[in-house]
Amino acid sequence: MVSKQVFLCSLGSFYLSLLLVFLLMDVYARPANSSVLKYKAVDNKDENEVLPPDHLNGLKMEMDGHLNKDFHQEVFLGKEMEEFEEDSEPQKNRRKLMVIFSKVDRNKDRRISAKELQRWIMEKTEEHFQEAVEESKVHFLAVDPDGDGYVSWDEYKIKFLASKGLNEKEIAEKVKNNEELKIDDETQEVLDNLKDRWFQADSPPADQLLTEEEFLAFLHPERSRGMLQFMVKEIFRDLDQDGDKKLSLSEFISLPVGTVEDQKAQEIDDDWVKDRRKEFEEVIDANRDGTVTMEELEEYMDPMNEHNALNEAKQMIAVADENQNHDLELEEILKYSEYFTGSKLMDYARNVHEEF
């Protein structure tokens, strides 16, 4: 990392410096999880079809315990999130944001209340749910080669290993004959963890076959209460260092083992810890006793928890509520557009009244 930074600095390139910051964020700004299974998205399309995603849209916490840095934008923009690109024309983005504002403002009083934003967040979350359902249908077909409407663990295992570069026909033959599979230890551990999750998704009566609905729960545990509980247990396994079935603040904000090599990385770590601490103390720890139980984390993780949606709406309003009237006005949202959309708008106030 140090040699790379020296090289980038020697180039004196602004864009490469930005790239370095993102690399540092990826390496340093994450907790010290013990599990090998991270469910990371990759570029290979086939693997994405069979490996459960790490990132679940509309959830405030990732499946490996990381906070979702795009959460606010996901529950504010929904499917329109991709339209707000950094290099898009500011005027077009401003108009798109005005349209969204008018949709959230149900009573047309030119203010967004916490209740209105809560309803909008719930709608956008449900929108993400429906998107997950449609994607899961496509992926289910990819791992159900005989088209019988059920997927066995062996069928899934064959597709998964094929996506890792192994010959699918050879793997299928070995699985059929119960022959030993020669795979590396890391892939085997991932496979073992996936198998645990597979059986958790197999609703009673357990038959080791997943229906399309059960397969959806396997890929998207946020859709199932039982799988949501399983996801919480996985996060506890990674973060609960003393095994007391509770998360302390120090466990929740734990940083990776190793030293920080430069000031920039230290600043990133400090911001990461600040965000984690605030979320722990103000939101997740519901009874404010200094620890988080599995039940508290489950409530926090539940994307359709209306209380959480209202709490999130109030937090989002507080970020931009400059006049302190506990509502969001158009000028405020436009001014803080980067928080809501990821896109920074210039001259936000100049044309607001003539365009809206």
UniProtKB/TrEMBL annotation:
Which PROSITE patterns does the record cross-reference, listed alphabetically? Answer: EF_HAND_1, EF_HAND_2
Signal peptide, first to last residue: 1-29
Q: Does the keyword Heme apply?
A: no
What Gene3D superfamilies does its record include?
EF-hand
Q: What keywords are annotated for this sequence in UniProt? A: Calcium, Glycoprotein, Golgi apparatus, Metal-binding, Repeat, Signal
Under the cellular component aspect of Gene Ontology, which terms does the record hold? endoplasmic reticulum; Golgi lumen
> Origin, by domain of life?
Eukaryota
The protein's location, in the record's own words, is:
Golgi apparatus lumen
PANTHER family tied to this protein: 45 KDA CALCIUM-BINDING PROTEIN (PTHR10827:SF98), RETICULOCALBIN (PTHR10827)
Q: Per its database record, what is this protein's job?
A: May regulate calcium-dependent activities in the endoplasmic reticulum lumen or post-ER compartment.
Annotated family: Belongs to the CREC family.
Q: What is this protein called?
A: 45 kDa calcium-binding protein
Species of the source: Microcaecilia unicolor
